[in-house]
Design goal:
It is built from 11 helices and 12 strands. With 328 residues, it is α/β, with parallel strands linked by helices. The chain has a domain of 222 residues: TIM Barrel, CATH 3.20.20.70. The longest helix has 13 residues. The protein is globular. It starts with 10 loop residues before the first strand and ends with a helix. It binds S-adenosylmethionine (SAM) and iron/sulfur cluster (SF4).
């Protein structure tokens, strides 16, 4: 699958649910309304769609959400997709808040998952609950260590929030080094209506990087995932440190990914509204031919780059849909 700008599309992120057991302040409102069940693809439908993408050249799948591990029977999907590893698929991975990871870590490893991203914005119990509203840090930490014990490599995702956790970033980098985890810092993105003022949370990562350089030796690395992260090697720990600055255009030209929502809508770019309704094709057509054609037609519309802007004057998100819908 090659898009009009010559980029090979080899990476699909799949949101398996819009639901979550947390209500992170930058991601959701506390009283979120979720989609009716009938609109959500069954696990079988998701598998069929993923198989179509793999047949067309996708080599890496990331399961995300919402919180993917709160979807009932989600392990079955991991097992089915895991059976395709080495057979078209190179990597099956997951982004999770870690709350359910303690019980899922071993079965995920058995299904073929070797690397995961776990979101952890702070190491302080109180701050954790303040950010996630409903979460408890012990469960996420238990999940992280269960995954480590199961032999899964871990990257910690930390959203950098002005005043909330900005003074904890050194401590997080040290903690990650101690336990052998990579760390990825994320700038807040203007996605979805939430309560509160987004511009008040915004912390530019250029500033964070400059501050970190006072204490750490950061060497720019060639490591790329095709996403918007720029990586550095951390001299003192030997781990990687990534910076995801979605509001900059740095890496759109090498973007290799598309995103599928839990309702079967394909977004060709996280920062654009254009989308393709694959559920309609999936439910209408028995043959995979029409599905393949619909996917290829969508890829042919992949835009060159995104147009994120924070509407500072009206304090509105640039895009109304939440991150939990498109999948982070
Ligand atoms: N629930 C899982 C989790 O938290 O890891 C997976 C889905 S979550 C939407 C994926 C990632 O997106 C998380 O690392 C989260 O911190 C990040 N995220 C959510 N809303 C965001 C926003 N408005 N700006 C930046 N990152 C955001
Ligand atoms: Fe849930 Fe992840 Fe969004 Fe937090 S960031 S509310 S854990 S989907």
């Amino acid at each position: 699958m090659r898009d009009p700008f010559g980029r090979d599309i080899t990476y699909l992120r799949v949101s398996v649910t819009d639901r979550c057991d947390f209500r992170c302040v930058y991601c959701m409102a506390e009283d979120m309304t979720f989609l009716p069940k009938a609109e959500i693809l069954s696990l079988e439908e998701m598998e069929r769609l993923c198989a179509a993408f793999i047949a067309l050249g996708v080599r890496k799948l990331r399961i995300t959400g919402g919180e993917p591990l709160v979807r009932r029977d989600v392990l079955r999907l991991f097992e089915r997709l895991g059976s395709r590893l080495g057979n078209g698929l190179d990597e099956l991975t997951l982004t999770t808040n870690g709350s359910q990871l303690a019980r899922f870590a071993s079965p995920l490893h058995e299904a073929g998952v070797r690397r995961i991203n776990v979101s952890l914005d702070t190491l302080r119990a109180e701050t954790f609950t303040a950010i996630t509203r409903w979460g408890r840090i012990e469960r996420t930490l238990d999940g992280i260590f269960a995954a480590k014990a199961a032999g899964i490599a871990i990257k910690i995702n930390m959203v950098a929030l002005k005043e909330v956790n900005e003074h904890e970033i050194d401590a997080m980098l040290a903690w990650c080094g101690e336990h052998g985890f990579d760390l990825c810092l994320i700038e807040t993105m203007p996605l979805g209506e939430i309560e509160g003022d987004r511009t008040a949370q915004y912390l530019p990562l250029s500033l964070v990087r400059a501050r970190l350089r006072r204490n750490w030796t950061l060497t720019a690395s060639d490591y790329r995932t095709g996403g918007p992260a720029r990586y550095y090697d951390v001299g003192e720990t030997g781990q990687k440190l990534g910076f995801i600055t979605p509001l900059t255009h740095n890496f759109c030209e090498s973007c290799n990914r598309v995103r599928l929502t839990c309702t079967g809508t394909l977004y060709m770019c996280l920062g654009q509204e254009d989308a393709a309704d694959l559920r309609a094709v999936l439910r209408r057509e028995e043959s995979d031919e029409a599905l393949h054609a619909a996917i290829l037609a969508a890829i042919a519309r992949k835009p060159k780059g995104h147009d994120f802007v924070i509407d500072r004057e009206h304090r509105r998100p640039a895009l109304a849909r939440h991150m939990s819908v498109t999948g982070g």
